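Give me the fold.
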Amino acid sequence: MISSIQTQKKCYSQRKDAFSNEYLEFLKKDILNSPYLAASQLSDGFVETQGFSVVFKRSTIAEVEKKLPYFKPYLDTALKSSCNAFYLNPLILNSDTYVEPHVDCSISEYGMEMVMPNLVSVLYVQVPSDLKGGELVLQQSEEQVWQITPQINTLLYFLGWITHSVNRVESSHKRISLICEQYNLSESRLNKIPDFEIKSGKDSGK
């Protein structure tokens, strides 16, 4: 279900039934069993959420797939060829958690001024049947606001400069999504980020 306060040009697109059900189950299992899964190390606006992050370049995708093979089908499908740097993170919201309004710029932590992604991709891995809330809210301007109800196995893209948030979740199960900020960096900026790094609320590793 999608609603907007006005009928205007959308800042997002969606693809339903993006993967097989078997892959979604495999992906969910490996995310939940990952040794890197912990309280989110992202900003304080990710209130009581869980996850971990993977930073990599187009040139090191093979390393990511070797270390974290369960991401391979997602990477093969979701990554855009025009982008050369990526910030991937599974995001888990339990009941009474939410994400405050923000603009993605996670890669800016690597010694550069604020850099926003070209686009952001989101796959809904698990959407509880009893979910209340948990909508993705995209705010393009005061007059352009979209509220998108998550649907399992839907791959969504939105423009990287859009302010967005996730409404408070009420559910007996976890809301799980897999998000990737996709950047097209200049060579000088690309050289500032690691070739491949895993960031966790537990420990960082490679």
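The domain at 2-200 is CATH 2.60.120.620 (Jelly Rolls).
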